[in-house]
Each structure stands twice: as C-alpha cells, then as structure tokens.
Specification:
By secondary structure, this protein is an alpha+beta fold. 15% of the residues lie in helices and 29% in strands. The strands form three sheets. Strands 2, 4, 5, 8, 9, 10 and 11 form a seven-stranded mixed sheet that branches. A hairpin with a 6-residue loop joins β6 and β7. The chain is globular, with a radius of gyration of 17 Å. It starts with 17 loop residues before the first helix and ends in a 7-residue tail after the last strand. The model has no long low-confidence stretch (mean pLDDT 94).
C-alpha cells in the first residue's frame, strides 16, 4: 500500500481506497482487509479472497499470532539505549483522533525497537510491535523524543490539506510472518518499498 491511501471506505474516502482499487483490479467482490494500516503508513497489507476463510485469518491477528515488522525514519539520539522493549499505556487523546500515553497505568502496548542505521542526524529503526494499538509506533517513538519524520500528529497536530502528498510519514509496514491457519505453512511477505535516510 502506498502512503496516503486508506484501506477501506470511510468518511470522505469512498472510491479512493485500497479495497475499491483491488476489487476493480481483481474482479473479486469478496476481498476483505484482514488488518488495518493508517492512511499515512505504507507497506504490506493482507486481504482475504474468500468469505469462508476470513474468520480464520482475522483470528490470527486477534490472538497476536502474526509477527509484524516496521521500518521508520526518525531523529538519531545517541544516548538512547537500543535495542529496547517499550511498554506503555495508550488511550484516546485530544483531539479525538490521536492517542496519548497515560502515566502510572498498566501497560497495554509493547514495541521492540532496534537501530538499523544512522547518519548522525536521522536514523532508520526496526519496530516489532506485539500489540496493535492505534498509532502505537508513532506514539512510542514520540515518547522517546524521536518522533517519526513527517508525522502530522505527533508531537503536535498539523492540519495539512488532504491533497498535500509532499511529505509522507516515514513509516513502512515492512514484513509480515505467520503460520497459515488453513495450510499450516509458514507465510512470509515483504514490502518492496524502502525508506532511506
């Protein structure tokens, strides 16, 4: 999925969605996304082709049986101890479409964060979430004071026009790995996109 494309029809995005494009392209009316990616995030998304097997794949995500890896470009912070596992309690923020960290509350989100490379200013990070809270990776990196490059919500909400595609969020769903519930084979999918420093 490219940046700026929503997965399913919502609000003002009805025709210009990944689902509508794929249904037209494949002629398969039964296509259903099995999980979600934010409009701003690019990368691997899984769709189910048959109604009867949809539940088995959605169950995988519900039971956290899917290993997802993301790449992000964010500021390089030399004093940050990596790799590390960050566990935080996330809840709805203000405005309503953002999330916030709640201090002294039981963690409900977890991300393993590794440094891939850096050029002293920017760094590429590998993010492996074990939970799937809304905006989790964006909030986690912002919490570490390394907000993802071009993030329109964190640390501050910037209202950009809907047709401004000049600065995509530097977050990529890079890899998905799981045991297929029907064939019992290991399935592995990689995005062809690459984020560069």
């Amino acid at each position: 999925k490219p940046h700026f494309l929503t997965i399913s029809p919502t609000g003002q995005y009805v025709q210009e969605t990944l689902l509508v494009r794929l249904k037209k392209q494949t002629g398969n009316e039964f296509l259903t996304p099995i999980h979600r990616l934010d409009r701003e995030t690019a990368g691997v998304v899984l769709f189910c082709k048959r109604v009867e097997s949809r539940g088995a794949y959605q169950q995988l995500f519900a039971e956290r049986q899917v290993n997802k890896t993301y790449h992000a470009i964010a500021p390089y912070k030399k004093e940050l101890k990596l790799p590390q596992t960050l566990c935080l309690h996330l809840d709805k923020g203000t405005p309503f479409y953002t999330m916030q960290v709640v201090a002294n509350a039981k963690a409900n989100s977890q991300t393993y964060i590794e440094l891939i490379e850096h050029n002293q200013t920017w760094a590429k990070y590998r993010l492996t979430p074990t939970t799937g809270k809304q905006h989790q990776l964006r909030v986690h990196l912002n919490y570490l004071e390394i907000p993802i490059k071009n993030d329109p919500f964190y640390p501050t909400v910037q209202h950009k026009s809907e047709d401004d595609f000049s600065e995509p969020l530097q977050l990529l769903a890079k890899h998905i790995l799981f045991i297929d519930p029907l064939t019992k084979e290991e399935m592995s999918f990689n995005s062809m996109f690459e984020l560069t420093l």
